[in-house]
Amino acid sequence: METTGLSVIPRYRWAGTIRDNVSVIVYCNDSKCGTNTKFVLLEDNGVYYLPRKEAGPPTDSNQSTAGASPSSGFALWPKAVSMLQVAENLAKSIQDSFISSLPPKLVMMTSVYVPTVRKPYHHYVFAIGVPSSAMDEAKKKGNFTTMSVADIKKLPSSELERKDIAMLAEYIAYQIKGESNLVGAIVREYGPQLVWRQVSEAQMLPDDMLIRSPGYREQDVEMFLEEFIRCSYPHSTVCLQDVKPLFNDLGFKDKENILFRALDRQRIGELDCREFVLGLAALDPLTTHGKGPAEVRCRYIFRYYDGNEDDVLEVNEVRNMVHEIAQLQGHETTPESITEKTTKALEVFGIKDGSGLPLTNFLVNVGNLRFRGTSLLFRANTSVLQHIIHKLGSTRKRQADSQFRSPESSEFLHKKLRKSIPQDHSKSCNSSSAENNGMHNRVEEDRDCSMKSVGSSSGSLPLSEGAFQSPDTSNHTLAQHTVKVRRSGQVTDIHLLLDMERAGEVCDTGLDVDDSVSQDSQGPSLLRRGRDLKSTRNRLFNRFQSVEAFNTKSLPNEMINALRFFEHGNANKPAFDWGEVDLAKLSQYIITLCSATKELMESEPRLLKLSSPCYILGDIHGNYRDLVCFEKALWRVGPHLTPANFLFLGDYVDRGAYGLEVVSYLFAQKVQAPHKFFLLRGNHEVRDIQCMFSFQAECMQKFGERLGLKVWNAINDVFDCMPLAAIVDKKIFCIHGGIPKIDGSLQELEKIPCPLSMPETQSNLAWQLMWNDPVGMEDSNEKVANELSDNDGFAFNEKRQTGYIFNQAAFSSFLKVNGLTHVVRAHEVKEVGFEIQQSGRLMTVFSSSHYCGGSNEAACILVHDYRMRIIRIDTS
To answer: Which of 684, 736, 822, 864 is catalytic?
Structure first.
């Protein structure tokens, strides 16, 4: 809103154009007014405000009187004039009669720190008392309104520019009557210190936890404060109109007023800088929905659906909330289903008579996990911090043109985006853009450099084929949420790990503390595979072209096509049945495939060195249905067209009915994409174990005893040559079982024989990699504790009756000695498909749902962009 010569209310100012401001509040100061003191207000489009002017330098040489009142022709520049003179000229610009014999009195001064320029701007409010005669004369020809304190306080918040006007009017009225206990002017200061409290974890309040929950640091809060200033300038609060564009960008189009009402905890129609930052932190998708942050978020959620602001959710308001949860979860949202879900929700809350749901009841039932799904509510559609960073980037040139811009301001704005990029690469990128036309381009160039340095290769090809160059200066971190995916690849659900930890579904994620994993100080190095497989692969495909039985150019593709026939049912054949197939020929195809796969396995090192992006899958155990689910979700178009590696941690057979099909599929993919598919050996890839369980019997059942044993032996010949461990990005150690009790370094793994037909007797190290477990609750007894203490953190694995268990001391020592940050393993079934231990550094992943008739889920882990993201597959 603007009024020529009297008030300028610029929207979305930038640091270089922010100026000090002066406002005046003119009032009647003689006895004729009595107790009903009148105050002068301007009005525009139904909104009342105080006259105001910027006090700043000329914008160019042709505007020497920039910012001056039209009647005075005086430059309102604080270095040239006093703020008292500015206030007098501003009052005179309203009416010439508003000249007081007494100098204007400062009644309020607000100082707002601007991070970009590293100094504050000020807003001065002066009170000017005039006689009632001057007020009456001015009213005859003035375009303004006079109101009493009572009149101003009656105005709704939407009709008053800021509540400060009512507060100042009341303050001046009390001073006039001599009833004010306040002396002098009101002084207020706003800056990061009001939002970011430097307190210990034990002293943190829920608000402090909320701000830190998405990973924000103090420099991030400065960026939020910068956004607040651009929205609120020249005031110390924001109203709905100020933040509508921002709320729209965050995904709340047409719901901006509802969101603002939820964030307005004081119900005054305005947000100060603290409320503004807290509200954005609560909206951030990375903010956890557990412990302290959950309570704050739930209060916001409650206000969001409490449309009539009576502190009670009516049945229809509960219904609205239930409907949004169902939508976000991808569930049915027909009126009937929503009515049913709402009825169940009311029963959970104990509401039977149609009465409302109070806040306390809501918090208790959400906190006790009786009512689920609130973690999905009240979320922005993007990271709030990243959105603000991009917004800053698009305006950096305007800031650079300003004489107020400090040299360091352009760097701290995107510091977090650059922290994982090696210095040599970032320098080379930025050197060519010193005079770039905006920080947005620099951010994009930083991303391009990052991609060139760490994302140009998938697999662990030799240098001549684009080997991965891994910057050791960066740590992998655990993503804060899990993603559930349908068979079709559609995301159906997102859960925060801290929510699941709070519910007891996972434990010790380490996300509630700062990442303290040490970093490798050595420089970048190349991850190599060991041997050049290009000639080997060409030789294999040439051989497959001569296989008469298939008569195709690609044996693996033919096998996968055959498995498609096995998977799909029709009128003549049930699903997961081979139908009318020549089993003798099929067995020969599998044996031929095994021969090709074995040759590949023999050429691989015992310890693979892989690069990200990389999907890591745990036990499959003959669950071909779930393996197909993973395929459709992760590599639907085939691994060779997917920019990621795929690492399987073993246990492909036994327990499930389709071990043969699982092995055939994995071997076919390995031969088809040897640089993408990597298979480690698990404890069930051993002949003796398979005889005890089901895989040997499965082969004989499907092919008969003679052919079945032949196929079984061919498959186990491949198992004998499988690698036993892998390292992803030089930091993440991957095995089937657990870390080994080893005296030397991981180079000892290369000494393990290949082939290894009897690992139990041929290599104790290999046996440990396949069988070891972390200490569990069942191991908590004095005998085990003593053995762990006497044996460097290792003890005999009573549950398995072979191998070892290891404790946190052994685990931490293993990471430190080998320069690792995380371990990913399989070997143990988990109810939600995964488990996280050791402060987020040890992850167990299980990729076969409903294991042995149970109810467990299937999951995998994606290592990408220095994150380890857990993906849960919907196999229902």
So the answer is: 684
